[in-house]
Amino acid sequence: MPKNKIGKLGESLAIETYNSNKGLPNLHVPSEEILNVDAVNEKGERYSIKTVTETNTAMSCFWGLSEDVKEIPKKQFDYVVVIRLSKDFKPKRILELTWEQFLKHKKWNNDLNAWNLSLTKNLLAETKRIL
Predict the structure, then answer these.
(1) Among residues 109, 62, 85, which one has the least CA distance to residue 11?
(2) Which domains are delineated in the chain?
(3) Which residues contact 37 (CB under 8 A, 6 or more apart)?
(4) Taking the model in full, what pTM does it have?
(5) 75-115 pLDDT tens trace
């Protein structure tokens, strides 16, 4: 399955999971395309949804943020939702990070000239587990 299809599948599954659980906000796809934002809730909070598979723990990139590690970037989203898919493309784990947690755990990818996240032990220990 091509990566863009995996990402779209992950976005759909994450939104479906949030919307089917009473303790979580309802999410929907925004009416207009916004860089790094895949869903919004009823309060207008913005979610960036990233999908990983069992064999790949590095997430796709977050574009539009300065590579200067000393510069605090303008807030582009409120939460990152990471969905990990099983080999049969079912949700295996869903995590939620705040913007502040994203800033703490992001790593620069020189090849792609953008930031990304990896599922490290520290990240897993500090994030909210949805599933």
Answers:
(1) 85
(2) 3-129 (3.40.1350)
(3) 30, 46, 47, 48, 76, 77
(4) 0.85
(5) 888 999 999 888 888 999 999 999 999 888 888 878 877 88
